[in-house]
UniProtKB/TrEMBL annotation:
This is OsmC family protein. Gene3D superfamilies: 3.30.300.20.
Length: 146
């Protein structure tokens, strides 16, 4: 199948190619791949959304965390949700950054928390998109039509 559609050929493009029943391989223009579906070894679209939000938070604040904790700091970030099953949507997201703060006193922890929140507020595109409820459209394109 051709990926020559406008979406797949654009800079910073992402697309997914069907690999089987309810299975896709997500790709980007830099060569990364992720398995998407509902089976073993696959991320569901909702899980990808949660990972995107969680990592957008930590990538946005990584410099703040590294400055306070050292360049080699270890962290795990998770995202949980409250789902509205009747409307098939998430009502809220909770992001949690887990890292060793034992080298910081209470005042330093509070300052780091404020700086991390500020960095996320300034730089997390995924969070901004969720907060503002971006609209989207879906079209079907035949790659052989001009």
């Amino acid at each position: 199948m051709s990926t020559s559609s406008t979406a797949a050929s654009a800079p910073n493009a992402v697309w997914a190619e069907r690999a089987g029943t309810r299975q896709y391989i997500g790709r980007n223009s830099s060569g990364a791949e992720v398995r998407i579906g509902m089976g073993p070894g696959e991320f569901s679209p909702g899980e990808l959304m949660k990972i995107a939000l969680a990592t957008c938070n930590t990538l946005s604040a990584d410099h703040r965390l590294a400055k306070a904790l050292g360049e080699g700091f270890e962290a795990t970030v998770g995202c949980s949700t409250v789902k509205n099953d009747a409307e098939e949507r998430y009502e809220s997201f909770q992001v949690e950054i887990v890292t060793d703060l034992s080298s910081l006193d209470a005042e330093q922890r509070e300052l780091l928390s404020q700086r991390v929140a500020g960095a996320v507020d300034r730089h997390c595109t995924v969070g901004h998109t969720i907060e503002h409820g971006a609209s989207y459209t879906t079209t079907i394109v035949d790659p052989d039509e001009d």
